[in-house]
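--- STAGE predict ---
source: upstream dedup step, 1 unique chain passed
mode: sequence only
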Amino acid sequence: MTDELLLAILARPELAPPDDACEAERALHASLQADPRRPVAPDELAALADPDAGENWRFALAFRDRLLAAPTVEAAYLGLVRAGRIALPPIFLNQLVHLILRNALDGCDDPYTLRAAELFFRPQRVSTANEAVLLADAEVIEREEGRAAASPLVAMLGPDPLTELDVLADDNRWTYWSRSDAFTMALNVGSNARSRDGLARAIEAWLRHLLHLEVAVEPLPRIDDRDWRWFVGLDAEATGIGNALWRGEALSEDAASRLLALFRLTVRDSMRLEPRLRGRPIYLLLAAAPDRRVVMKPQNLVVGLPLLEGAVA
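--- STAGE serialize ---
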């Protein structure tokens, strides 16, 4: 755990003292910039005039202390997600996922895999047209919608901001490198098989890096297995849809339309699985919420696989 990482947490806009911040808040921020590992006494937080600032600092310092107590970023993440309820704002967990994937995908030169990996830590917005199912960074889209809302005419007549983004394809894949940090490229998980393959490769790398688990992940058009025994929802919506299917319920047309991708996961060393799952595939589901957002929960892959106790990293 480096001081640079801790300083990056302090650089979050939620922690930067605003113009009207009290002296206690400014002093706290400045002292931690000078020594990001120093202990902070409860009375220092109690002295902050703004209750919201105090709450932000409590979350941030609890997160920092969890990081400092772990030997690595990966260990800190595993400790958090295995503990059950995660009492942290999603932004902090997403920062850890981003860092871990930077390690897991070091040396990867496939833009489809790298763009698909953004789903692990960046919420997406969905747009569908014909066979295309486009995923675009939700923050980018919402920022563009905010600009359009400032002009009633643009809001009424302007195009969908998502459809205005470049969609990753073979003829423009080389441009991904110059815009990866801006998150301005859309991913077609509907009619571009390479996008679904990219997400499969990202899932493989995630499990290999975090759990030392070798798996093969294959995109599927549908699940034909009448004896499917296990699934993992890659997000809350997919978990709900998977549970309904598990109970034998018929999906509504709306729920079926929000199911974006299916995968079959096979664990190469089946002895790491619970006995009743050995030799059987595990299915993965990805879905969109009714508001057209996709919020992937990569922790479900860590805690949701039927691995034997003691058989995980």
